[in-house]
Amino acid sequence: MQPYTSFARVTPWLFALLLLAASALPAQADWFGRAPDVESVSLEEVQALMAEGAQKGDVVLVDVRSPEEIAVSIIPGAISVTEFEARLEQYREAKVITYCTIGVRSADYAEKLMEAGFEARNYEGSILDWVNAGLPVVTPAGEATRRVHVYSKQFSVPPPYEAVTR
Q1: Its pTM surpasses 0.85
Q2: Which of 143, 53, 61 is nearest to 100 (CA)?
Q3: What is the Cα–Cα distance from 46 to 109, expressed in whole angstroms?
Q4: For residue 19, what are the CA distances in angstroms to 9, 12, 25, 73?
Q5: Which entry of 72, 94, 100, 127 is annotated as an active-site residue?
Q6: What is the DSSP letter of 14?
Q7: pLDDT digit string, tens, across residues 106-163
Q8: DSSP at 74
Q9: Which residues lie closer than 8 Å to 5 by C-beta, 6 or more apart?
Q10: Active site residue 100
Q11: Residue 149 buriedness (CB in 10 A; 0-12 / 13-18 / 19+)
Q12: Residue 65: which H helix or E strand, with range?
């Protein structure tokens, strides 16, 4: 038996299995289960929205990372999910921009906010994109730092930043 002959027999079953798995996802979800209607914003868009929001007071940047990650550093002006959820009604009419390490967890949170009626966008690339652009990060107390929690050792930050995983 030739190797390709056995592959040809398996391929239709594999294809059927993939179709079955894909049908289990919500109709509007991509292969990672994220809804495509969550708008992603770039670094430049985040900066423009934050500048606009500073003038109008209608933009909030929400860090969805764990308390341990946030304890290392945050993007200046950001608040934690805990702070955001403690004042939900204050932000009901605001543009909410979510971020995490690379944008996956924040996309999920933005989707939940949208389902709850908020105008939410996801900063794709998140804090790693921010520091790769050489922008500042601060401690929760507002002090400048170069330490960035990278969630996993598979991620890195450029010099002069210091990657933290614990």
Answers
A1: no
A2: 61
A3: 17
A4: 17, 11, 10, 42
A5: 100
A6: H
A7: 999 999 999 999 999 999 999 999 999 999 999 999 999 999 999 999 999 999 999 9
A8: B
A9: none
A10: yes
A11: buried
A12: none
